[in-house]
UniProtKB/TrEMBL annotation:
GO MF: 5-amino-6-(5-phosphoribosylamino)uracil reductase activity
Residues of the signal peptide: none
Domain of life: Bacteria
GO biological process, one term: riboflavin biosynthetic process
A family per Pfam: RibD_C
Organism: Streptomyces beijiangensis
Annotated ranges, domain Bacterial bifunctional deaminase-reductase C-terminal: 2-182
Protein name: Dihydrofolate reductase family protein
Length: 190
């Protein structure tokens, strides 16, 4: 069974929308506009590329990342690994040709089947809607959260508001940084 890891830049009030400057969100770019950059606070992002064996994302995140990430040195390790996009509307013709092997998954059942295969961890980048659905379905095994000391108010959130049973998490790694960022790594307790 493969480990499914959700990784996110998240505000203290749970918003994950527009951290890198994506258009259409009033606080877009909040990760670099309002908090001093400290390289050590982002160490986990480099480690994720080294440890992940595949990337999973939703259609919206794929459409945002695929024109940019294939040519960025910061994401070079991701270019070589398999990518999976969960979408009911994306077609093979919509996939970019310069980012390596990409497979479209249509359902959460297909994600569950992927988790049941041999291989290393699968990392989920961006994909707020997909993260909420994966969490509600009990498919996420670990969270890598870089928490920013910001309250953004409105915006897409990482966790759903679904009325469900308590899901317990175990803090397995944490650190606070001089700029107020916090790294929190949680395993889902089953």
């Amino acid at each position: 069974m493969r480990t499914l890891i959700s990784t996110a830049f998240i505000s203290l009030d749970g918003v994950v929308e527009g951290p890198g400057g994506e258009p259409g969100y009033r606080n877009s770019g909040w990760t670099f506009k309002d908090v001093e950059f400290l390289p050590e606070a982002f160490e986990i992002k480099g480690r994720e590329q080294q440890e992940a064996a595949a990337i999973l994302m939703g259609r919206t995140s794929y459409e945002a990342f695929s024109p940019v990430w294939p040519d960025m040195a910061d994401f070079a390790d991701y270019k070589l690994m398999p990518k999976y996009v969960v979408s009911t509307t994306l077609t093979e013709d919509d996939l970019v040709s310069n980012w390596g092997e990409t497979t479209i998954l249509r359902t959460l059942d297909e994600v569950a089947a992927l988790k049941g295969t041999e291989g290393g961890p699968i990392i989920v980048h961006g994909s707020a809607s997909l993260n909420r659905a994966l969490s509600d379905a009990g498919l996420i095994d670990r969270y890598h959260l870089v928490v920013f000391p910001l309250l953004l108010g409105a915006g897409k959130r990482l966790f759903s508001a679904t009325d469900k049973d308590t899901q317990k998490l175990k803090l397995v790694e944490h650190e606070a940084y001089a700029n107020g960022l916090q790294k929190n790594v949680f395993d889902v307790v089953r």
